[in-house]
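Appendix B. Raw example, untouched.
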Amino acid sequence: MVSKSWKTFQIIQFVLFACVSVFLFTRTVDGHGAVQTLEVKLISFAVWGIFYLGVLAIEWLIYFIARRFKH
């Protein structure tokens, strides 16, 4: 069973992911002053999504290793 703190952390992390995703899609100009077209927004979102999936993979790997040593 997953602990309550683990679930809370996952929810907070997902909310943060959603907020950054909304920011990436609503901004019109990036940090360098380049205009954000739909293609650039989709590429930015893809990079952000791959990063997020990598973080989730590491978290679940740690979770399964910890669960294995617990039993």
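End of appendix B.
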